[in-house]
Amino acid sequence: KAGVTQTPRYLIKTRGQQVTLSCSPISGHRSVSWYQQTPGQGLQFLFEYFSETQRNKGNFPGRFSGRQFSNSRSEMNVSTLELGDSALYLCASSLKGAFLAKNIQYFGAGTRLSVL
Amino acid sequence: AQTVTQSQPEMSVQEAETVTLSCTYDTSESDYYLFWYKQPPSRQMILVIRQEAYKQQNATENRFSVNFQKAAKSFSLKISDSQLGDAAMYFCAYRSERAGGFKTIFGAGTRLFVKA
């Protein structure tokens, strides 16, 4: 079974641009979560999607948005990029979302975003 | 709000020895799950071990075991017979359901060095 796939692996953008990152979960997984990882702030939760619905959101500005498609693939978008958005963005999928917090999250390798 | 604290930024262990990584958390919830994740230099995050808060028995996975003290809100990871491949960043994580969705909170991480 293929793992969680994130594309692209690396991305370089300039301030003010926007970016879209993609995440394909493990086949059959319906829950997708996004995290931002930086040396200063560590791993921070961005949002979680289940069955195309955003069910939970972290404390990030509205420039960060996401969506999930009917095939469970998810995208996150960051508009008007700032230097501080440079980070590793991780996506994680799990088998079921509702009422089963114990379900293991499987992580992708991440997308390294550099904002110049 | 829930918080997860890993007080050891770095730890070092001799190959074949035992090392314990500390994690404390703060929550008012009664139902939650705790995890230890490993992030090697290749950066793909993988699950090491998980613990359900309502279970008193400490989880064990081969050379990895936890010491879960619910009253003290402590969740330490013990790695026995350390191997070179154990060198990685280790993250303690808290996961619970809220508002119909899930949120995972990670600690800042502990970098483990294994000496040959």
Question: What would you say this structure looks like, in words?
Answer:
The complex is a heterodimer of chains A (116) and B (116). Chain A is mostly beta strands. Helix content of chain A is 0%, strand content 52%. Chain A contains no helices and 11 strands. Chain A has strands at residues 5-7, 10-13, 19-24, 31-38, 42-50, 53-57, 64-68, 74-78, 87-94, 106-107, 111-115. In chain A, strands 2, 4, 5, 6, 9, 10 and 11 form a 7-stranded mixed sheet that branches. In chain A, strands 1-3-8-7 form a 4-stranded antiparallel sheet, with no helix packed on it. In chain A, a hairpin with a 5-residue loop joins strand 7 and strand 8. By secondary structure, chain B is mostly beta strands. Chain B is built from no helices and 12 strands. In chain B, the strands form 3 sheets. In chain B, strands 2, 5, 6, 10, 11 and 12 form a 6-stranded mixed sheet that branches. In chain B, a hairpin with a 4-residue loop joins strand 8 and strand 9. The model of chain B has no long low-confidence stretch (mean pLDDT 91). The interface between A and B is medium-sized, with 28 and 28 residues.
* Low-pLDDT residue spans of chain B: none
Largest sheet of chain B: 6 strands, mixed
Tell me the overall shape of chain B: globular
Kindly state the mean pLDDT of chain A as a whole number? 91
Fraction of residues in helix of chain B: under 10%
Q: In terms of structural class, how would the helical and strand content of chain B be classed?
A: mainly beta
Give the chain pair forming the largest contact, with residue counts: A-B, 28 and 28 residues
Q: Uncertain regions of chain A: pLDDT < 50 for 5+ in a row?
A: none
Strand portion of chain B? over 45%
Number of strands of chain B: 12
